[in-house]
Amino acid sequence: MKDRTDFGVSLRVMRAKNNETLGGMAKKLGVSSAFLSSIETGSKPVPPKVLSALADRYALDKAKVDDLRALAAESMAEFHLVPKKEDRALVAIFSNKLSEMTPGEKEKLKAFLLGGGSKE
Question: What's the domain count of the chain?
């Protein structure tokens, strides 16, 4: 059995507080038990509909939903990009350099990419 992600641990805590099983929570969320288990272990990404259903079915406040959204993003072990052929070299360079950047440099890059930063 794979380890639970932090998102999965949060779901398990919610289940324990509500005295329900994986199957019971899955039914409330409109997904199968197998799919919910895959989400918990990071084998499958957390679909937005699952986050919405969690918020609705468990009456979660905005702060809790935001926390779960962040944990869901962190739970993805990997993701795949399919860049255009002409962009592949740039994507590879970016991927290698990203791990070398400081948090401040990453924030500046993020601001630039989102259109709010300077081009310096």
Answer: 2
pTM for the structure as a whole: 0.61
69 and 86 housed in the same domain: no
Give per-residue burial for 25-43: e unless 16+ CB within 10 Å, then b: bbebbebeeebbbbbbbbe
CA dihedral 41, 45, 47, 53 (to 10 degrees): 10
| pLDDT per residue as tens digits for the range 66-97 | 999 888 888 775 566 788 999 989 988 988 89
CATH of the domain at 53: 1.10.260.40
* Residue 1 within any structural domain of the chain: no
Distances from the Cα of 95 to the Cα of 89, 91, 108, angstroms: 10, 6, 16
- Written as six digits, the tokens of 22 are 């994986």
User: How many Cα atoms are found within 13 Å in the side-chain-facing hemisphere of 75?
Assistant: 27
